Amino acid sequence: MGALTIVAKYMIVAQIEVNGGVDKSDIIGALFSQTEGLLGKDMDLRELQMMGRIGRIEVDIFEKNGKTKAKIYIPSNLDRYETALVAALVESIERVGPYPASVKVIEIRDLREEKRKKIIEKAKELVKLIEEEILPDTKEIIERLKEDVAKAEVVEYGPERLPAGPDVDKSDAIIIVEGRADVVNLVKHGYRNVIALEGISRGVPQTIIDLSKKKNVTVFIDGDKGGELVLKELLKVAHVDYIARAPPGKEVEQLTAKEIAKALRNKISLEEWLAQQKASGERAEAPSQPAQQSQQEQPAPQRPIQAPFDLEKKIEEMLGTLEAEIYDQNWTLVKRLPVRELPDFLATSGDSIYAIILDGITTQRIVDLAAKKGVKVIITARTGPLTKVPEDMSIYTFEQLKKTE
Hints:
Helix content is 36%, strand content 23%. By secondary structure, the chain is α/β, with parallel strands linked by helices. It has three domains: 10-110, Alpha-Beta Plaits (2-Layer Sandwich); 154-279, Dna Topoisomerase Vi A Subunit, Chain: A, domain 2, CATH 3.40.1360.10; 311-404, AICAR transformylase, duplication domain (Cytidine Deaminase, domain 2). It has a five-stranded antiparallel sheet with strand order 2-3-1-5-4. A five-stranded mixed sheet has the order 9-8-10-11-12, with helices on both faces. Strands 14-13-15-16-17 form a five-stranded mixed sheet. One of its GO terms (biological process) is DNA replication, synthesis of primer. InterPro entries: DnaG_primase (IPR050219), Primase_DnaG_arc (IPR020607), TOPRIM_DnaG/twinkle (IPR034154), TOPRIM_dom (IPR006171).
């Protein structure tokens, strides 16, 4: 079986006794066949192995006199609860071929703990060097120690085995960088939800595209022309929320903790980046949309709004909330949600939608999704660059409505 090589977090070690003569392939075959479907597709051993969540299963036969005894080694990249579940699943094996068998899990080793022990041993060596005044610069040792710890925490994520921090799955937001060295530097300074493109010469990895659909995405690029080229390639196929950039001439892997924090604090939205590109006279491509030929920065109101409440008061109420309100044709409130969740709601909701009021930026993506839902009115804090607005849709900014009140 062509199992993926994984960076395992745990190693399940089990002992099997078979009342008959069998070989390694018989034991491995029994593991897959007798556990199939017991806990559903998500915990199926074949599926987990194909996804790189468990690695190649090894079997060492150490006694064979009419009966077979062997040890089974299963590397796992699952969390500790899922790993324990796999171990319990393995213990459910009752036969190998025609012979009765019993399996007992001996231990589940935390491989990361072994890495930590090695790091600590290395730290002891470095401390000894300090004591002997061979390395008098304590700061340098601490930095090397931090880097060793960070390298040990970097995992390989997805079928493309992309370098990543350990919290990419757990976090609602991710930081996308260019290469492994960038990942190591950010993990060293406490940013564990980071993942690398690892070059785009063969295109943007599908793992990155899939993550961008369900996570809040910040792209952190180098402060040079190469960083801009990487960003533009990414924007063609992936959804990006924010863009952060290293200081001019610097690479992300070179940044100090303060420089990283400042760059991420000063990140800008995709809409702001597109507006900057337009202002500088460059043609910028937004995700899944053609190059912009004309802009509609401040759409003019098309018809009076017949809302059954004071719009100026509603705008004052919405300001600063970063939320959106969804209304049906009778101006009955259907839902209130964060603006960042609005595109997904429009893409999946089955509700009837007539109007949207949002304390945020109305982008072309929002306009396109709203048009498919038959939305007639959008009232927004600001608009981004818009290339096409349906004739039967009116878009008003907060400022425009305040002027007309």
